[in-house]
Design brief:
The complex is a heterodimer of chains A (112) and B (114).
Chain A (H helix, E strand, L loop, with lengths): L5 E2 L2 E5 L4 E6 L6 E7 L5 E8 L4 E4 L2 E6 L4 E6 L8 E7 L9 E2 L3 E6 L1
Parallel strand pairs in A: 2-11
Antiparallel strand pairs in A: 1-3, 3-8, 4-5, 4-9, 6-7, 7-8, 9-10, 9-11
Chain B lengths: L3 E4 L2 E4 L5 E7 L5 E7 L5 E7 L6 E2 L10 E5 L2 E6 L8 E9 L2 E6 L3 E5 L1
Parallel strand pairs in B: 2-11
Antiparallel strand pairs in B: 1-3, 3-8, 4-5, 4-9, 5-6, 7-8, 9-10, 9-11
The chains are: A mainly beta (112), B mainly beta (114).
């Protein structure tokens, strides 16, 4: 079963604008991760935030985590056409099993 | 990191037949998983591939339909048996190591059943 919801389901912006995607989850977690998928191919790991962290940066990516609300957001700043992809949040539950539970995903289109 | 090779990358199959997907990791990993991604949907975990023993299946997935093998630490196969058009999906292999939370994914196998 899916862990939770992501919104928006689809997002279309102009190059240079910022893109914000949100993710909610249902269970306790050790960490939350964000992945990118280009055109139905494999997933690429973007960033991980642990349950005791509130914000994390990596290049143009900024992730926040609010465990009280069971939600996370991914901000991509100064977007590029190459950022066009689907973005998924994934949680590990609290069991350290390595299994991931994915959100529904946000499809981002960045127009040149 | 780990590089995962998955093949075939895509296939078109007749209903009632079976397809075996192979997943090869370039280094030893502790955990291997198989996910399904139905058209326009997110990823759903099919099973955990256990080395030298039967896979652990998630609710809604059974061994008769999705037999999985993992003979060693770097190789696993997933078979989609007695296929129907509803099995048309992308199937993805994933691997990870104990203590390393990042998961690595193969490029996926796009299966179309006609």
């Amino acid at each position: 079963s899916q862990q939770g919801e992501e919104d928006p389901q689809a997002l279309s912006i102009q190059e240079g604008e910022n893109a914000t995607m949100n993710c909610s989850y249902k269970t306790s977690i050790n960490n939350l991760q964000w992945y990118r998928q280009n055109s139905g191919r494999g997933l690429v790991h973007l960033i991980l935030i642990r349950s005791n962290e509130r914000e994390k940066h990596s290049g143009r990516l900024r992730v926040t985590l609010d465990t009280s609300k069971k939600s996370s957001s991914l901000l991509i700043t100064a977007s590029r056409a190459a950022d066009t992809a689907s973005y998924f949040c994934a949680t590990d539950g609290s069991g350290n099993t390595g299994k991931l539970i994915f959100g529904q995903g946000t499809t981002l289109q960045v127009k040149p | 990191s780990a590089v995962i090779s998955q093949k075939p990358s895509r296939d078109i199959c007749q209903r009632g037949t079976s397809l075996t997907i192979q997943c090869q990791v370039d280094s030893q990993v502790t955990m291997m998983f198989w996910y399904r991604q139905q058209p326009g949907q997110s990823l759903t975990l099919i099973a955990t591939a256990n080395q030298g023993s039967e896979a652990t299946y998630e609710s809604g997935f059974v061994i008769d339909k999705f037999p999985i093998s993992r003979p060693n630490l770097t190789f696993s196969t997933l078979t989609v048996s007695n296929m129907s058009p509803e099995d048309s999906s992308i199937y993805l292999c994933s691997a990870g190591r104990t203590g390393v939370t990042e998961a690595f994914f193969g490029q996926g196998t796009r299966l179309t059943v006609v």
